[in-house]
Design a protein that fits this description.
about 450 residues; Rossmann fold; 3 domains; about 25% strand
Amino acid sequence: MRRRVVIMGAGGRDFHNFNILFKDNPDYEVVAFTATQIPGIENRIYPSDLAGSLYPNGIPILPEDKLPDIIKEYKVDEVVFSYSDVSYIYVMQKASLVLSLGADFRLIGLESMLESKKPVISVCAVRTGSGKSQTTRYVVKVLREMGLKTIVVRHPMPYGNLNSQKIQRFETLEDLDRYQCTIEEREEYEPHLRQGAIIYSGVDYKEVLKEVEKYADVIVWDGGNNDFPFFKPSLSIVVADPHRPGHEITYYPGEVNVYMADIFVINKVDTANIKDIKIVEENLRVRNKIAKIVYASSPVVAERDEEIKGKKVLVVEDGPTVTHGEMPYGAGFLYAKKMGAEIVDPRPFALGSIAKAYEKYPHLEKVLPALGYNNEQLKELEATINRIPVDYVIIGTPIDLRAVIKFSQKSLRVYYEFKDESIPTLKELIIEWWNKISKKN
């Protein structure tokens, strides 16, 4: 008898775990995926072309809140938890629910990693919003300055047509339109593209890896949320956030990254409390005595000088960071506060799914999350911004939001950069690692 399996996910790690461990495996029957975190990714089909010969009709993707009914209806033997950036309490509450319904609860470990013929640097984090994106861009910049052909592979975000997203290659900004990318996807891809990097993503990472290995001297794995990498790293860099001390050891699967790390980057030391930095450092060191620790700041840079002191402003921040990442603010808020602007509460003006986001994430008060997972939500975001009577919209998102929506107010874009704040620097450690790799080969 094949064990009947449900894979709980959010449109990324779930598909990877299926492809590596369950696809074409006669010992298992995956009866359904469940979906959460990302609006609108449920009630789809994981297509037969991707699912393999055992699933001629594909596999249904159902809402996670239907999990008890699914377990009962399909007589499920095993539930595999396959998404990230959730507290340990949350994970065990899901486990308790599953166990109470008679199924086993499973976490997939490092067996899901693919081994590359090329050196891999992974950049992961302990939480969403730790500063991983600017760290990754810095790593890519260092490698390219060393003359190495560097290709970035991004943790998946396949929220659209899965067949067309099997392997995605991004080289120009036009590719973002070609793949009909959501705001979240654009926030991750666009900064790399503006830096001149080539990025791959998709659904089937076995095939992605084959493609990337044809061209790269070094592969940089750009992690999503606080997940651990899909490719086995030759060098594991893990970013920690002292604005949320303790989260590095209480959120799944961020602590997996802590144990795996070769280098810790304790970020945001320019704005964090010294006591909180020490707490994070101690937590990391207790769990990993070998990894080197470097310190970095995330200076906020504005696209131009603009006098906003005393002006009424709306702050729009990176969606995942301030929603399930649980950060109450980001680069836009920090800049507006520093410059003496009057930050307007956007909640009374929020429409549709944007208003629902405030209900789901009550820690949000003074910032507007840039949510745009589908065209309808994008329109709601645009309409919400246009309703708010302010002098300026401060855009704290990694992309230029003005390229995808239109609003009437003046605007100013700000963003994080990466700055080494210790010796040895992250750059020096990367060069040291590459010299060792080169000698071995």
